[in-house]
Design a protein that fits this description.
Order of helices and strands of chain A: HHHHHH
CATH class of the largest domain in chain B: Alpha Beta
Number of strands of chain B: 7
Shape of chain A: flat
Number of domains of chain B: 2
CATH architecture of the largest domain in chain A: Orthogonal Bundle
CATH class of the largest domain in chain A: Mainly Alpha
Oligomer: heterodimer
Number of strands of chain A: 0
Largest sheet of chain B: 5 strands, mixed
Radius of gyration of chain B: 20 Å
Number of helices of chain A: 6
CATH superfamily of the largest domain in chain A: Cytochrome C biogenesis protein
Strand order of the largest sheet of chain B: 5-4-3-6-7
Distance between the termini of chain A: 68 Å
Structural class of chain B: alpha/beta
Helix content of chain B: 40-55%
CATH topology of the largest domain in chain B: Glutaredoxin
Helix content of chain A: 55-70%
Order of helices and strands of chain B: HEEEHEHEHEEH
Strand content of chain B: 15-25%
Largest interface: A-B, 14 and 19 residues
Shape of chain B: elongated
């Protein structure tokens, strides 16, 4: 039992330890924070379902290097974003911007919510009417 | 009545949409992994890289300015590149366009041996060892092929193995008509 627990603990510990960079990119928390945020915001366009922070492929490590260098050179977040979007398009961002092409994407949750609310209200109104109608005291 | 009809209609419409997409993926006419390049119609990013054969010699994109040319991204580690190689040789021969080979993150000796074995379709073969030029061109998976116009704009891009059929369908009309997409 103890062995099983140890094995389980090791597996769980390894899950957290899968970071690709072996050491911090920057000594200061501010730049390291910006770096971490960017590598989690940029999609690995080669593997497509991972951020460049989590991908072992060569292109992801090249893009991490690019982010690191741009932050080290004192470039702004807007410059980093522009650099990536110019080359790879909006798809490289995990947070796609609101454009004519993405209106439907952004509006869909609100529209679905309103539809669901409308249905819910109808059902509730109908049910409450039904219970009043079938109230035995009314019939009496 | 509509409360039975509506869910059935929605189900059929959704099923139809899925079937349509799956059939197109099956035929190869829809590639869900393909990212449309934002470079289409824009000025081509330049390059300035050492050649594969003589790393001391540097070739820049300005050497190709003034006439249309192709840029083909490849690597010896890329299986699809091997698949498109004969098409590339034929396109280089028949179109008369110079093809710039961008050898992406590759082993130099293996790349030289690969071209010796399969034939060399490239006017110049350049080594992009650190992958910076590939990033500038928005490359995300070899093989990728770009057509650059005489005035230095990206006219067309193909992701994946080229074939003569794809060349005739996608690239040849661009060369005949010119103009931005």
């Amino acid at each position: 039992m103890k062995r099983v627990a140890l094995a389980l603990w090791l597996v769980l510990a390894a899950v957290g330890a899968r970071a690709i960079d072996t050491e911090a990119a920057f000594p200061d928390a501010e730049r390291q924070g910006r770096y971490e945020r960017w590598i989690h915001e940029l999609r690995c366009v080669q593997c497509q379902n991972a951020a460049i922070a989590d991908s072992p492929v060569g292109l992801a490590s090249d893009l991490r290097r690019q982010v690191r260098e741009m932050i080290a050179a004192g470039q702004s977040d807007a410059a980093i974003k522009a650099f990536m979007v110019e080359r790879y398009g909006d798809f490289v961002l995990y947070d796609p911007p609101l454009t004519a092409r993405t209106y439907a994407l952004w509006a869909a949750p609100a529209v679905l919510m309103l539809l669901a609310l409308g249905v819910a209200v109808r059902v509730i109104v109908r049910r409450s009417k039904a219970t009043i109608d079938s109230d035995p005291e009314d019939a009496a | 009545m509509w409360r039975y009809f509506l869910p059935a209609a929605a189900f059929i419409a959704l099923g139809g949409l899925f079937a349509f997409a799956l059939v197109r993926i099956g035929q190869g006419s829809l590639d869900i992994r393909e990212i449309k390049s934002p470079l289409l119609g824009k000025p081509a990013p330049g390059f300035r890289l050492p050649t594969l054969a003589e790393p001391g010699r540097v070739v820049a994109s300005s050497a190709f300015a003034g006439r249309p040319y192709l840029v083909n991204v490849w690597g010896t580690w890329c299986a699809e590149c091997r698949a498109e190689h004969s098409a590339l040789l034929a396109i280089g021969r028949t179109s008369g366009l110079p093809i710039v080979g961008l050898d992406w993150k590759d082993d130099r000796q293996e790349a030289i041996a690969y071209l010796r074995e399969l034939g060399n379709p490239y006017a110049e073969t350049l080594s992009d060892n650190d992958g910076r030029t590939a990033i500038d061109w928005g490359v995300y998976g070899a093989p990728e092929t770009f057509l650059v116009s005489a005035d230095g704009h990206v006219l067309e891009k193909h992701i994946g193995a080229l074939s003569l059929a794809i060349w005739q369908k996608k690239f040849a009309p661009r060369l005949a008509g010119g103009g931005a997409p």
